[in-house]
Design goal:
The chain is an alpha/beta fold. Helix content is 40%, strand content 12%. The strands form 3 sheets. An 8-stranded mixed β-sheet has the order 4-5-7-6-8-9-11-12, with helices on both faces. Strands 1-10 form a two-stranded parallel ribbon. The radius of gyration is 23 Å and the shape is globular.
Length: 504
């Protein structure tokens, strides 16, 4: 059985390192490539029901095409809801850049807290993803050119969510039910921005691992890979040194006569395709996503992984039975990420398919979501490199004939001087970040005010707080979730108090 290797990243283009000719791909949030925990068909039906909302194509213009509509999918669970007559709360998940079912099945926190709050659960799918495709549901048409693709943006998505929530509350006669929004990764960014843009619709937001500061001239483009390097180096200095020195060894071996075949055998690569850059990208992916999902319990989030997978990778590198054979050590690393189940006989580097329909993010990156991550210092375990906006522009013009609005997100939502600005403007947002997550470098890591709170977990990974709980969860993770529940309870209590006061 061959294991496929698809580059499912936020930005899908390659950048050449100035030191080593490694075709490096800018990483995406793991939500981009979620393979949900394996749930039975019965269990999935118990989690939610699927419904559709007739959504307007363009919320911000009034030309004839703006009034076209499409079917936007949302998932609903009313098992625990106390009902509109009790003004019971509504918890809404802000859909990410992919199929909403993936996120729903990996957001156990909402299901586990709903009974406590007697809450209705709603998970809304992001336009242009999953089954929420405009232009008759035809992705080929929707993605065909900038005239159609141009309706894919964060601002349109937020307006979708606002419109759907208002209509849903009206239809349920639940206009006085408080709404709390949730999200992780890009969805967490949307949740935070939704609270700031639509405070009349939601009373608060839980924004988990949401790098709202990971934009130009706010966060260093070197921080992302610096955190990954720190994760691995914290486990073993030898692990760090082996990885750091391996890139040049791969390049050198590939240039030798028969070198690629040696690499193929060393890494058990399938016989259809191989190159030095494809192997390097393959390893980049394993290191990056393992750091992002360095969970304290076994998971099947991206692929089957053991608890603390970074530690396990470094154990493979430090295994004395591999001696000084760097490629044997790296093969052990790759097996942890790509073949922990042990079922693969070779690895397929030539699979560039997109089975989950995630390519919409390439457009979003090329228009507004320029998040510089591609810098590596000399201390990085990856080859030294610099982030280049010009490379982004070249890719975007080539593939979409569009140039990014490189400062639009911070113009629309803010980000500069956020601690000063939001202290006098915003309220009721929880920012969770785990410091082993490389995206935490662009997160809010300290309290902004009494009601805009940062919860930071030194050992935490990418939106680990939103995952289903397990018996093996460490105390720090249990405490994080307790803090979040207590804060949300305070928001809801305050809302009911004010509702009673203004109604009397």
């Amino acid at each position: 059985m061959a294991t496929s290797f698809a580059f499912l990243w936020f930005s899908f283009f390659t950048l050449l390192s100035s030191t080593v000719s490694i075709a490096k791909i800018t990483p995406g949030f793991p939500s981009s490539i979620i393979r949900p925990e394996k749930l039975s068909h019965t269990t999935k039906n118990q989690l939610y029901k699927q419904k559709y909302f007739t959504q307007i194509l363009d919320h911000f213009n009034f030309n004839p095409q703006s009034y076209q509509t499409f079917q936007q999918r949302y998932l609903i669970n009313d098992t625990f809801w106390a009902g509109a007559h009790k003004n019971a709360p509504i918890f809404v998940y802000m859909g990410n850049e992919g199929d909403v079912e993936w996120f729903t099945q990996n957001t156990g926190f909402m299901f586990e807290t709903a009974p406590h709050f007697k809450a209705l659960l709603i998970f809304i799918e992001h336009r242009f993803y999953g089954k929420s495709i405009p232009f008759g549901g035809n992705k080929d048409v929707a993605y065909s050119n900038s005239s159609t693709h141009g309706y894919l943006s964060s601002t349109q998505a937020l307006a979708d969510y606002a419109t759907l929530i208002i209509d849903l509350k009206k239809n349920l006669s639940a206009t006085d039910s408080p709404v709390v929004v949730f999200g992780g990764s890009y969805g967490g960014m949307l949740a935070a921005w939704f609270r700031l843009k639509y405070p009349h619709i939601t009373i608060g937001a839980l924004a988990s691992s949401s790098p709202i500061l990971h934009f130009e001239n706010i966060t260093s483009p070197y921080i992302f890979y610096s955190i990954i390097t720190k994760d691995f180096r914290s486990e073993s200095e030898n692990c760090y040194k082996v990885i750091k020195g391996s890139w040049q060894q791969i390049e050198d071996k590939a240039k030798q006569p028969g070198g690629l075949e040696t690499l193929r055998k060393s890494f058990r690569i399938c016989k259809n395709y191989i190159s030095a850059s494809s192997i390097e990208n393959w390893l980049y992916t394993a290191y990056t996503y393992t750091a992002m999902t360095d969970y304290p319990t076994p998971s099947n989030f991206l692929s089957p992984l053991p608890a603390y997978p970074v530690k396990q990778m470094c154990k493979a590198i430090d295994n004395p039975t591999t001696g000084n054979d760097t490629f044997a050590k790296l093969y052990g690393v790759a097996n942890i990420y790509y073949n922990y189940s042990g079922s693969a006989t070779c690895f397929d580097l030539d699979d560039d398919s997109d089975p989950h329909g995630l390519e919409g993010w390439n457009w979003q990156y090329c228009t507004e979501m320029i998040m510089p991550t591609d810098g590596n210092s000399k201390e990085s375990m990856f080859p030294a490199s610099q982030w280049s906006y010009d490379d982004d522009v070249t890719y975007c013009k080539l593939n979409f004939d569009v140039e990014p609005r490189r400062n639009w997100i911070t113009t629309e939502f803010g980000g500069h001087d956020i601690y000063r600005v939001l202290k006098r403007f915003g309220s009721n947002i929880i920012f969770f970040n785990g410091l082993r997550d490389p995206w935490s470098g662009g997160g809010v890591l300290k309290n902004i005010s009494n009601s805009i709170v940062a919860i930071v977990a030194k050992e935490g990974a990418h939106h680990v707080d939103l995952r289903f709980s397990t018996k093996e969860d460490p105390e720090w993770l249990k405490n994080v979730r307790k803090q979040e529940v207590n804060i949300i309870a305070k928001w809801i209590s305050q809302y009911y108090h004010e509702l009673a006061h203004f109604s009397s």
